[in-house]
Amino acid sequence: MNRPSFGRFGEWVALLWLLIRGYRLRHRNWRGPSGELDLVMSRRGEIVFVEVKARAGSGFGGALGAVNQQKQAALARTASAYLSRFEMWDQPCRFDVVAVQKTYGGLSFTVTHQANAFRPDLGRRM
User: Fold this and answer.
1) Would residue 125 count as lying in a domain?
2) How many domains are contained in the chain?
3) Reduced to 3 DSSP states, what percent helix, strand and coil does the chain have, rounded to the nearest 5?
4) What does the pLDDT profile of the chain (126 residues) look like in tens digits?
5) What Rg value do the Cα atoms of the chain yield, rounded?
6) N or C: lower Cβ tally within 10 Å for the chain?
7) Residue 73 is part of a domain; what is its CATH number?
8) Which residue range forms the structural domain that includes residue 53?
9) Which of 107, 5, 94 is nearest to 51 (CA)?
10) Does residue 17 belong to any structural domain of this protein?
11) Taking Cα atoms as reference points, which of 39, 10, 4, 5 lies closest to residue 101?
């Protein structure tokens, strides 16, 4: 499976993983002026912005390590645009990361869901 295909596969796996756990899909690949939100979910009255990282291995910090401060800042700007666009500033929200990583030999994969992966300052109470 090539890189773009595995990335799309990772997003589908993450979406199914979250749906099974009671999350509802609001938007997928929502584009704003500062970038893209992979998944926007809701659960128990909370908006959950989900960054999906699909990786073939754990090198360079693996999938979770790929969400560095620069990426977090871009996600926060895009999430702010999302909240403004849909007039949802009164909704509690959080940022999660779902990592889909191939296991040794590439015959299977693991899914790691890190809730509240980071907490940017969006200029309001989260």
Assistant:
1) no
2) 1
3) 35, 40, 25
4) 556 677 788 899 999 999 999 999 999 999 998 899 999 999 999 999 999 998 776 655 566 677 888 889 999 999 999 999 999 988 999 999 999 887 776 678 889 999 998 888 665 554
5) 14
6) N
7) 3.40.1350.10
8) 3-118
9) 94
10) yes
11) 10
